[in-house]
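Budget justification aside, the reviewers requested a transparent look at the raw inputs and outputs of the sequence design task funded under Objective 1. We therefore reproduce one unedited record. The lines immediately below are the structure tokens for a 474-residue chain.
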């Protein structure tokens, strides 16, 4: 089976990566997943010695953990990708004081012209436009008047664009997932450390109101000692993946012809990782994944797509539902689910349990001792006043989609860049939250055998440091 990123003959399809682009000397194979025999040892309890893992590639630069941005009065942004996500996000950048969108890029000229018009309509000078083919992002990244490159393009292009941004001295924020291969994740870590530029997975779900409230409650000890959590991306996307207009070509559907595992772990993994201080006192050690047969996309195609549609040439191997179990160094367990192929109400699960109780979302409910009794779910909203994050107290009704979490995320990133603060999450979080993409595929192929999750921090995870549960700047 061909396990390289899928070939897409559309305009976006020529954005591809090579083993050479991922960096030399990584000591891992071209696919970026270890053999099934490279399973991590069993995680130790919190009081035991740190887990011994395979040696990480030699560090080529100093750690980026806790490294602050250089403060600036104005953050100059370049946007690459003006599809559904880019078009939905540009307004947040334009709405904030001290932020300028200086350049926009998309290989579809109509889209880049609409992006430029949005910038002008917001009262900013017309941005430079880049629409000369798939690789014009390289010219945007080479500009000298940008501080941050925001990437909202098909998944296979995330790595080369992030790489180009950092090599040209720009910080980069990338939509999920940050890359699709393990060697690409290591390459982004190395590039961030070498260039001294941050590479961030822009995981908006970490900024959801419920997620931030649970985070603060967990850090305040309301759940006792943390034991388990769960997250997911269960979202019926069949109609959108087969739509001729929603995506720019069939790139997202075609990943289901290439990988069996969890294609989109970040929305579920990111929030739970923040609750458990993963990379800030704990770390994800191993992942075991299981997948159902791949039936639903073919059934949907049979019912909805006319004969002769290009989709009839596709063979789907991606599990309709994947379930993964992640073990942490402190012995905690995280369950991840992914299902975009079957009928299912939207859910990210978003649960957290400890020695004093449990929270479960969709719908939000909570049970904590000694606050509650008789094994009856209680009202999670009762904890809003004491435990809502200061970002949600300052922005009680934020604009935009996804319940306002997109706006909160952009506001906070721009705040960190302007004030010279460390970002709430960094390249190590981006790599960790995305590692289940290749590793779940490898585990499913190996009948659920555990796969080692690399220590992308190279030991820095043992040090406590701030994250999304940040202190409000003075």
């Amino acid at each position: 089976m061909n396990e390289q990123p899928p070939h897409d003959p559309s305009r976006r399809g020529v954005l591809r990566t090579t083993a050479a682009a991922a960096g030399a000397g990584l000591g891992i194979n071209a696919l970026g997943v270890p053999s099934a025999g490279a399973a991590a040892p069993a995680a130790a309890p919190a009081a035991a010695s740190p887990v011994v893992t395979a040696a990480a590639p030699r560090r080529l630069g100093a750690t980026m953990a806790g490294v602050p941005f250089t403060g600036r009065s104005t953050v100059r942004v370049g946007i690459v990708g003006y599809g559904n996500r880019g078009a939905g996000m540009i307004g947040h950048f334009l709405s904030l004081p001290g932020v300028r969108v200086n350049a926009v890029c998309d290989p579809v000229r109509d889209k880049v012209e609409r992006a430029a018009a949005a910038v002008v309509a917001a009262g900013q000078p017309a941005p430079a436009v880049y629409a000369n083919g798939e690789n014009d992002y390289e010219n945007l990244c080479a500009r000298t008047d940008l501080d941050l490159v925001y990437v909202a393009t098909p998944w296979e292009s995330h790595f080369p664009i992030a790489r180009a941004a950092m090599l040209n001295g720009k910080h980069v924020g990338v939509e999920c997932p940050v890359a699709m291969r393990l060697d690409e994740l290591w390459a982004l870590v190395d590039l961030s450390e070498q260039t001294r530029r941050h590479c961030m997975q822009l995981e908006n779900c970490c900024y959801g109101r419920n997620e931030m409230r649970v985070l603060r409650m967990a850090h305040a000890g309301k759940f006792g000692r943390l034991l388990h959590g769960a997250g997911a991306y269960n979202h019926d996307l069949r109609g959108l993946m087969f739509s001729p207009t929603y995506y720019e070509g069939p790139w997202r559907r075609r990943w289901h012809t290439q990988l069996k595992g969890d294609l989109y772990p970040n929305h579920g993994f990111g929030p739970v990782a923040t609750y458990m201080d993963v990379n800030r006192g704990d770390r994800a050690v191993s992942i075991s994944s299981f997948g159902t047969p791949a039936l639903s996309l073919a059934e949907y195609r049979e019912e909805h797509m006319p004969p002769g549609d290009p989709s009839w040439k596709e063979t789907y191997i991606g599990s309709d539902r994947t379930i993964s179990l992640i073990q942490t160094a402190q012995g905690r367990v995280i369950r991840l689910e992914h299902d975009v192929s079957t009928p299912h109400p939207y859910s990210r699960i978003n649960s957290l349990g400890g020695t004093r109780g449990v929270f479960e979302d969709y719908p939000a409910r909570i049970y904590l001792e000694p606050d509650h009794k008789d094994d009856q779910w209680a009202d999670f909203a009762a904890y809003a006043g004491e435990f809502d994050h200061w970002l949600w107290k300052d922005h009680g009704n934020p604009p935009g989609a996804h319940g306002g979490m997109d706006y909160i995320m952009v506001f906070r990133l721009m705040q960190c860049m302007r004030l010279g603060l460390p970002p709430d999450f960094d390249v190590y979080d981006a790599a960790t939250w995305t590692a289940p993409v290749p590793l779940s595929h490898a585990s499913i192929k190996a009948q659920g055998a555990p796969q080692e999750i690399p220590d992308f921090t190279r030991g820095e995870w043992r040090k406590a440091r701030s994250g999304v549960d940040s202190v409000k700047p003075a």
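The chain has a mean pLDDT of 90. The CA atoms of residues 154 and 269 lie 20 Å apart. Computational costs for records of this kind are itemized in the attached budget.
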